[in-house]
Amino acid sequence: MQYVALVYYQEQLIEAMSEREWHDLNQECLGCVERLTEQGHFITGRALQPVESATSVRRRDGETLVSDGPFAETKEQLAGFYLLEARDLNEALRLAGGIPPARLGTIEVRPVRELPPKDETGETS
User: Fold this and answer.
1) CA 27 to CA 112: how far, in whole Å?
2) What pLDDT score was predicted for residue 82?
3) Which domain holds residue 11?
4) Considering its fold, how many domains does the chain have in total?
5) Whether the Cβ atoms of residue 2 and residue 109 lie closer than 8 Å to each other
């Protein structure tokens, strides 16, 4: 089963790091990905640019609304994700606990929901 591990932390903590600390954290993350890949758990993942580069899009009453920044104010910002293969939630939680930024913030783990297949008429079944 696939699980997404969403990495959240306070960007202020990252901004306060020295270049060396930031480099070391990134190297730890790369090592984590390497281990997860070797074990057959890592599918894909990406780090995100800081929240100040975000743009939010909403659709309300047929109108598209675009605004700078994230839609919701939060103490921690979404920094990236890991898409993991795990046999169950317990294994996914164990794997997420090994993601280095877990010690700086929160790793939210969610099962991936498969969408129903499209039928011949173009509608989902």
Assistant:
1) 27
2) 98
3) 2-111
4) 1
5) no
Numbers of helices and strands, H then E, in the chain: 3, 6
Distances (CA, A) of 112 to 52, 107, 118: 27, 15, 18
pLDDT in tens, 89-117: 999 999 999 999 999 999 999 999 999 99
In a domain, 120, yes or no: no
Q: Contact, 116 vs 8, CB < 8 A?
A: no
| In a domain? residue 62 | yes
Interval 30-51: pLDDT, tens: 999 999 999 999 999 999 999 8
* Prediction pTM value: 0.85
Rounded Cα distance between 6 and 48, Å, is 11
Residue 31: CATH number of its domain: 3.30.70.1060
Using CA atoms, how far apart are residues 7 and 14, in angstroms rounded to an integer? 13
Say how far apart CA 102 and CA 28 lie, in whole Å. 12
Task: Say whether pLDDT at 13 is over 80.
Answer: yes
CB under 8 Å to 19, separation ≥6 — which residues? Answer: none
